[in-house]
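Fig. S4 source data, part A: sequence.
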Amino acid sequence: MKLIFLYGLPATGKLTIGEKLARLTGYKLFHNHIAVDPLLSVFDFGSEPFIELRESFWLSVFEHAARAHISGLIFTFVPERTVRPQFITNLVELAARTRIEILSVEVTCPIPVLKQRLDNPSRRPFQKINSIELFDALYSSGALSSFPMGRPELTIDTGKLSAEEAAQQILELCQSRPDYIDKEL
């Protein structure tokens, strides 16, 4: 299975890019809030049960998708303080066991642009950060960074590219890799 791992700060455009990329590739979109939001109905964000269940859910979905021979999955992720560093280690180990090929893409944008996007109506259906004050408090406290993610295979600046252009760049990178994606897409 191919796993396109989109990561970056909130409101950089990961979900929007993921939606465009899913249409271009036919891959399934598994975005962060599919796991986060149901858990928030029971557990406080950052509580031990929340952290354990969220990471277990992420890894379980990846494993089951690979075993079900899903051709590709697009995952959106914020590497923030409540994510344990072993999540990435566990993902890499799972990928080796189940033959998941990971393509890591960092999604960035200038902080002023990011702040303009926080109140976008597209963010409201999910329990996403939608307040500049909350973002500033989390960002300045270091809560929105946790551990180095390693070197991405591609960095996309959505302050310079539209979601469509970003998805196209990711698709082109995938197509440049032998057997990563169907060349006819």
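Fig. S4 source data, part B ends here. The longest strand covers residues 101-108.
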